[in-house]
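Sample entry (369 residues):
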Amino acid sequence: MAEDNIFSDLLDDELDQTEDSGCDDQNSSNGNRYEHWRIIVDAGQAPVRIDKFLAEHMQHSSRNRIQTAADAGCICVAGKAVKSNYKVRPGDVVTLMLDHPKHDTSIVAENIPLDIVYEDDDLMVVNKPAGMVVHPGAGNFTGTLINAVAWHMRDVPAFDANNPEVGLVHRIDKDTSGLLVVAKTPEAKTVLGKQFFHKTTHRSYNALVWGHIVEDEGRIEGNIGRDPKDRLRMKVFDPESGIGKPAVTHYKVLERFGYTTLVECILETGRTHQIRAHMKHIGHPLFGDERYGGTEILRGQRSASYKAFINNCFKICPRQALHAKTLGFVHPRTHQQMDFDSPWPEDFAALIDKWRTFIKGTNRTLNDQ
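Predicted structure, serialized as C-alpha cells:
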C-alpha cells in the first residue's frame, strides 16, 4: 500500500537523521510528542509481535530498523510506547511518535545547479557534490538533490518529484561525492531498481583510508546493522549472528602513502555506510570520517610538523574522503550498457596531491640518510 511506503520512508529518514535528538518523553525538551503516522490493525488479525507485524506492512523497512524504533520509544499502541515483543490485537492503533511536529514532506522544486553527466527521456546521471543531501528528510527539507531535480524537470508534465515511482534509484551519503542515477519514468525506475537489487550494476568508489594496507586487494564480508552504542553509526556483525544485513565489499590498493592508502572499493551490496563501516572494521577508517574515527591522527609521527600536516589535510577535505567514481548499468529502454566515470572533485584531488607530495618528501629524506 502507498501509505505503508510513506510510513516506511518516514521511519527510515527519522532514524537516520534525528535519532540523537531522542524519541522518548525523557529526551524531549518539553515532553510533547507528535503523531507522524498510524496503522489500525485489521479485525481479523491474529496476535503477532509488533516488529513482525510492521515488517510485513512496511516492505522497505527491515525488522531490525523497526526494533530500533521500538527501543527508542517511537512505536506506540493506544498512545503508549511498546517494545518489539508486544503482540498486536485487532483494532490496535499503532503510531509513530516523535518529539517534533510532523513536517510537510512534499518536495518543492528549487533552482539549484546540477552537474548532469548524461540525460535522455528515461533517466539522468548526476555528479553529486559533497555536502548535498540526496532526498528531503528530517532536518533537511530543502536544498537536496531531488529538490534540484524537481526544478530541472519542472516543465515535464509526466514527472512528479513527489511520486515514489520516479526519482532516485539509489542514494549516497551527504558528504560523499559522485555519481547517482535518477529515473524519469516508472518503467525506468522499475528496471533500474531490479538491476540494483540483483547486483548487476557496476559501482566503484575511491577512498583514502588510514593505515598501510599490505595486501594489494581484499574482500570484506560482514553484516551491517545499527551500532547499539551509537544509533547514527553502523556496525559490522558476524554473518552468523543474524544481526543486520549481509554486506560484501571488495577493495584494491591504488596508491600507498605510508600512513594512508588510496583504495578502490567495489560493492556487492548497497548497505547504509557500507564502505565506511567495513573499512573501520578492518582497522582502516576513512580519512576525515568523523563518525567512524577518521578525524583522529591514527597513524604517523608525533612531530608538530606532522600534526600540522594532517590538520591541513583535514582543512583541504573537511569530510570523509570517499567518491563514487564509476557507475554502470543497462539502459532500461535501449538495453545498451551505460558506463560513467567522474573525476575527483577539487577537495579530494587536492588531498591526494598533498599526500603524494608528503610521501615523496619522506622517501627523499630516507634516501639521503
